[in-house]
Write a structure and sequence with these properties.
Length: 414
């Protein structure tokens, strides 16, 4: 169940909650990708401690390995992962179609579904809209995404138009199969039925986006996703398409900006009315030594201010950890440009003897206990501890970003 508590008067941003069988989610929110049943480099204890509200698992990958039969023995993915907060499963379609579009030898797509070769052992599989929904029910997730035909954005209009038509037909079949599974599995509580999302396609063609949205809205999904990558083949953000697609979705429905993950893109999409975000960016960038940090000169870029964790420079690698952070939000968050943060490349030689922390205003394990120089050392010798600490730091950055955004919408500043 989705409920909106406050709408902005300055933009189309809104704050609300989603009630699921595994807890309440505050919107807008960001979900780390737990593709194969885990967020890379961190464990569930850390995820819960950070305040991660939900993660995204991949239907295709879990179907292939360990397999649905295994997960059913655990009575669902929550128990299999030992994760008792909300889970969203994507349909697996993006991965399948990426394989097929990159190489015709990996499979084929027709109106019935997709036939593809497993990247694990080469075995042939068939995924239909019905099977995708069945698998996601077996996973026992809180939020389900309908199978869609996801072509690259650079496809010609005729091909995108064909994918829109197929996506609409598949959405109808997903809706029917969802209703069948609810009855078959005797899911009694209407309040905690898994939420079902349709996917709006059309590439950068706004009229096709509208055509797809109009037809999907007739099916009364709980939410709607922005389909395909949010950037064109040159890497330019599809700003107009994201804005127009959000406008097409009814206000009482969830809006999921699939794959939108750069902080500035999340911020602008929140202002367009999007509620949900997921991306591999924070964890993937962390594994390459790229660390996110808010600019200290907030007066020039935005009005976020942090109370320092200590008045003087702290000693790094001290024996005792700071258990209670003094981090808090003093005022508004109003990025006037996309540059309200920086990305530090810890592999850069300038950090080799840097005795400072990455960010003295961050309360994560990395910033509290280790220096930039030590992190540089860990990455140079390829020690996994470096990637783990970087992942913790980047996820904390993203969670703080979403917390600030929610508070500033409530304050009427976004």
């Amino acid at each position: 169940m989705f409920r909106i508590f406050k709408k902005s008067k300055k933009s189309k941003a809104r704050v609300g909650i989603i009630k699921t069988a595994h807890g309440i989610i505050k919107t807008p929110f960001f979900m780390p990708d737990a593709t194969r049943g885990f967020v890379k480099m961190i464990d569930n204890h850390e995820s819960k401690k950070f305040g991660i509200q939900s993660v995204v698992i991949n239907t295709l990958h879990l179907y292939l390995q360990p397999g649905v039969k295994v997960i059913k023995k655990f009575k669902g993915a929550h128990n299999f992962m030992n994760w008792q907060k909300s889970l969203l499963s994507d349909s697996g379609g993006f991965q399948i179609f990426s394989l097929i579009h990159k190489s015709g030898k990996m499979g084929s797509i027709n109106d019935d579904g997709a036939i593809f070769k497993s990247p694990i052992d080469g075995a042939q599989h068939k995924l239909t809209p019905e099977k995708s929904i069945q698998i996601q029910f077996d996973l026992g997730v809180d939020m389900i995404v309908a199978l869609d035909d996801c072509p690259p954005n650079e496809f010609e209009r005729a091909s995108i138009e064909k994918s829109v038509k197929r996506t609409i037909e598949w959405a109808k079949r997903c809706r029917e199969e969802y209703d069948k599974q609810v009855k078959k599995r005797k899911i009694a509580s209407q309040n905690f039925l898994p939420l079902l999302f349709g996917v709006i396609h059309g590439g950068a063609e706004l009229d096709l986006r509208k055509k797809c949205a109009v037809e999907l809205i007739k099916l009364n999904f709980d939410g709607y996703c922005f389909g395909a990558r949010p950037v064109d083949k040159q890497g330019n953000f599809l700003d107009k398409a994201l804005q127009c697609t959000a406008d097409l979705i009814p206000e009482d429905k969830l809006r999921f900006a699939l794959g939108v993950g750069r902080p500035e893109d999340i911020f602008r999409c929140v202002k367009y009315g999007w509620d949900m975000f997921d991306c591999v960016i924070p964890t993937r960038e962390a594994r390459h030594g790229r660390l996110y940090k808010f600019f200290p000169d907030y007066g020039r870029i935005c009005s976020v201010k942090y109370i320092p964790l200590a008045q003087k420079s702290r000693m790094v690698n001290r024996k005792s950890k700071i258990k209670n952070s003094n981090f808090k939000i003093e005022s508004n968050f109003k990025p006037q440009t996309s540059k309200f943060y920086d990305i530090l490349n810890i592999n850069n030689s300038k950090f080799r003897a840097d005795t400072n922390s990455i960010d003295r205003n961050c309360d994560c394990e990395l910033c509290q206990d280790y220096s930039a120089g030590y992190m540089h050392h860990l990455f140079k010798i390829k020690e996994p501890l470096g990637a783990r600490l970087a992942t913790i730091h980047n996820l904390k950055f993203y969670l703080k970003l979403m917390e600030i955004i929610r508070k500033e919408i409530k304050r009427g500043e976004i």
